[in-house]
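Human: I would love a firmer grasp of how sequence relates to backbone shape in proteins. Take your time, and here it is.
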Amino acid sequence: MISKSFNRYANHGRPVHPALFSAVFPTVILLALLSGCTVGPDFQRPEAAVPARWSGFTQPAATVPQTVADEELGRWWTVFADPTLSSLVERAATANLDLKLAEARIRQARAARAVAAGGLGPTLGASGSYRRSESPITGANGRAAAVISDQYQAGFDAGWEIDIFGGQRRNLEAADADLQAAMESRRDVLVSLMAEVARNYIQLRAYQQQINITKQNLAAQQHSGKLTRERFEGGFVSGLDVANAEAQTATTAAQIPLLESSARQAIYSLSILIGEAPSALDAELSPVVAIPSAPPVVPVGVPSDLLRRRPDIRLAEAQIHAATARIGVATAELFPKFTIVGSMGYQSDDFGSLFDWSTRFWSFGPSAVWRLFESGRIQAGVEVQKALQEQDVIIYRQTVLSALQEVENALVASAKEQTHREALVTAVAANHKAVSLAEKLYIEGLTDFINVLQAQLALYITENALVQSTATVSTNLIALYKALGGGWAAESAEQAAVQPKGLKGD
C-alpha cells in the first residue's frame, strides 16, 4: 500500500521507477530508526554538600518553624505591614528597567530555542529564474551566427538532515537550558530588586527619624544656651559656658543639612528603582513615617531549601545543563551526517510552456558527509566543551557556598543587632534621665555646665544610634529574606507569562 502510494504523483499519476523506490525507501526507514541514539553525556543534577541546620540560628527550635511557606517567603515585605513599602515593591516589579532588560533576554533565549528547534525539521525552498543569453553558432556555410535564447526555470528544493547521533537534539536541549537560565536570571534580578527597594525605603525612614531627633536635640540645646546666656548676664557663670553652648548648638545644626541630603538621595534612588524620574516620589515620601519594624521571629527553613529557592543557584544549575548538552553537540561532529535532499521543477525556453509536464525535472536521494580528516580539531572542540562544563560545575559550587555564607551572615547579624538595639533602648532612657538631672543641678548651681553638655551629647548620640539600630534590624531581616531567595511573588502576570510551559522552576 505504501509503495503504491509512493509510486504515483498525485496530480498526474506518472509512475516512479521501481528501482528508485527500492533504493530510497529502505534508506529512509533505516535512517529514521537510527535517529534514536544521542551521543554525549546526559545531564545529572549536581550534588552540593549543605549542612543539616544553620549554625547562626540562635532562636529556640521550639518557637520557630523549621520550614517557611513559599508564598510567605515570596512576599516577605508584607511582614513590615507598611502599605507604602508594598506599593513601591509592586511598582518596581512592573516598571524597573533592569527587570525589563532581563525579560528582553528571555525573549532572546526563547527565539534562540526556536532556531535550534528548527534544525530538527526539514527545509523547503522555492526558486525561480529567467536568463536571456546570446551564443555563436556556426552554420553549414561555415559562417558564425549569433543566436539569442531565453530560459525559464521554477521549482522547489527540499532537504532534511536526519539527526542520527543527536547533535541537533543536544543543541535543542542546550537552548532549553539557556532559556531556563534566562528565566532564573530574571528571578535573580527580581529578588535583588525587592531587597534594594525595601533597603532604600528603610534607610529613608531612618534619615527622617534622625532629622527629627537632631531638631529636637537642637531645640533642647538652644534652650540650654539661652539659659546659660541669661546666667552669664546675671554674673553666675563665665563666658566659657556660653561659648561651649553655642559651639554644641552649631555642631548639632550642622548635621541637619547632611541628613536632609541623604534623605533626598534615598527618595531619588527609590524613584529610579520604580522606573521614574528622580523627583517623582518627592510628594509621596517626604512626610515623615516611622521605621517599619521587623518581626522578632523569622522562619528560615533548612539549608537544603536554598537549592530550590535561590535563583542564582538555579541559574548556575541551568548553565551546567546547557554546557553538558553542548558536549553532545560537539561530540556529534565526530560522526557522519546524513541528509535526504530532493528537488523538482520546470525548465523551458518558452514561458508559455514552462509548466508543461514535459518540461519537468526532479531529483531525490540521501547523502552523507563525514569529516574524516578533522578528527583532531573536532576532538579538541569536545575537550573545550568539557572544560567549560567543568567550570560551570565549579561556579555552581561557589554559588552554593556563597549562598550559605550570606544566610549565616544575615542570621548572626540579625540576632546580634537585636541585642544591640535592646541595650540602646536602655541607654536612651538612662541618658534622658541624666540630661534632666544635669540641667536641674546646673540651674541650682550644683554642677558645671560641661556636665550638661556631656549629658546632652550622650543623649543625642544614643538616640541616633537607636534609630540606626532599628533600621539595621529591619535591613538585616531584608538581607536574610534575600539570602533565602525570597521575592519572586512580586512577578506580574505579564512577567510570569514569559515562562513557557514545561520550563518553570520547581
User: Anything to note?
Assistant: Residues 78-124+165-333+384-496 form a domain with the Outer membrane efflux proteins (OEP) fold (CATH 1.20.1600.10). The mean pLDDT is 84.
